DNA sequence: AATGAATGAGATTTCATTCAT
DNA sequence: AATGAATGAAATCTCATTCAT
């Protein structure tokens, strides 16, 4: 029943947008009475929260696979792979993601998928520890904080916005480059030369 | 009167969020009748649009000054300066910016201040032409597109989100680095080495 | 519930006129919430339409009986009977009829009860075919068109307006005469004499 | 100024209908302030009343000429002439007349132009006295009352409604016939034969 | 006299939420 | 557990009318 209601919520969101999302409409779409909806969800907000949490979990699931794959790859390739999977996942949840970003009263900017960001940050910490072990921990955190924002925002842009004249692949490439550059102070030992 | 109404709109937005923004509430806050509000604004949307336009213009004004200053500076310093000013400006318009980003049905994801992004992109094009003249135009556009998203999103994060344990300055530094790295393929002639 | 709302609508119409007919007032009069009103009627217009349709159907029902009776009577008696019943029916629906005629934005002048007029016209066509078979069809239509206006208007006047010093019966008599005269070119073979 | 306001009222009525008639709109159309409008008219109702009175007077003026002409004509021709002029006059005031009939809260059914009806009745009394001198006075009044309704309603129909497949002239002819028949019990001495 | 900005009651309509069945 | 009719606060917007200038 909960699943049916959440599925209906997602569909209404896709078809009518956040402004057109009413509890009655959701119940009707779900083939359920409003009363039942309120048996399983305290209020409209909880309904939305739950849907977001589930979408987040979905994305997270796909992401976890990608992260597992990524550890076996060269750094930049791994990052790229993760980003590509994230973009795909967001596209698959396009409707809900879009509706939420545009309109839902989230109260956190860009943190549409906080769990995703957290998980990504977790793995990124390991990545940084491996590829830039000498980096000061506080400095590393700062870079990760920033990089997460950049990565999520970039992926959302790539996934949801029509890029004029630029292929999605190229954008993912660039983002991957950017992340590696941003996270690892000197990915190719340039700093040695640079420091001289 | 228009100013009073817009000021009231901003305040209601701060106190109640976008969802709590009603024309009656705005009128009351402004100490004005609803009728008057509708004398000056055709409808609720126009009211919001006007507020956004004004905020946008304000930010844009401050940004323009920063961009003018920046041309006389070394590349990275110029970029940093612009970002710092942008962060400050967004902080000063925190309330409206935040409300609009989170909740206003803008239809452009993260692109809350389209004018700002456009203006920034314009100048960035020149920056790229100067500092990476050999870059393929399409490639340059892709990088700028991405960089604008990154820059705005990063500035918004810095301006609006409590950064745990990291100074704002450090984040701006990192963002500046990132932008330079992202926009100019090989700021230090690294690619020569890279190619071998 | 629908009935209660419609009854309330009729009552408000009687007491306050069309201009004083508000959905809130109707709901209050019906002892029902506005929300309920809107559960059963899509909008104010539908409410009014439904009331008109029902009144129309009521009048039509009574009219149909009268028309059935009338066929078995001599022409003038039949006409008179129909008119008398129509007057009575309109009087019984006085409030709604009056409000609608005077004020509802119908777009058809005097044609308040289009169904009634149509039904009446239908039977009148047969009447004419029987009593004035030699009449040119176009001419017959013209006469019927006119007669319907006359009949309805006359009945409305009789039903709704205080006739000073004239009995209702006498007015109905006169109207019946008029209709017979108007519909049948020469009810008593006068034209033969006339032609000489 | 009064004239300007009334002219503006008429124009707004034509362009926007009764529902679109607002005092502010009228004032604007007249190039006058609302305040001024309220200096000359106690309220909106008075404005409308005055406009109706003036339209009525206009129609009345044209009618008076026709009535003067009519006295010199044979009965039926005179009646026909008056009706034709009335139809023309109503057509010339079509917009206002139509708006008023359909929507204005008149409170009197069909009595849109009470002065016109009264004047017409006055002359008709003379007509009846001349052409049916033996008619009982009460009976005469009844016939006149009815005939006025018929005449005005018929003229309004002819003037304002698209008659499908029937010429306006023919309808006026029929109406004239009807009125003569209705007013004079036996215009051609038929009753003598009838009475036997 | 004239202006027109300001008023505010009131109209239509929506929708989250409740509760008797 | 489930239903869904009923609720009513609240939102947007209009417009007749007033009154300080």
From TrEMBL, chains A, B, C, D:
SUPFAM superfamilies: Homeodomain-like. Keywords: DNA-binding, Transcription, Transcription regulation. InterPro entries: DNA-bd_HTH_TetR-type_CS, Homeodomain-like_sf, HTH-type_TetR-like_transc_reg, HTH_TetR. Residues 1-59 form the HTH tetR-type domain. It comes from the Bacteria. This is HTH tetR-type domain-containing protein. The keyword Protein transport does not apply. It holds the Pfam family TetR_N. GO terms for molecular function: DNA-binding transcription factor activity; transcription cis-regulatory region binding. Residues 22-41 bind DNA.
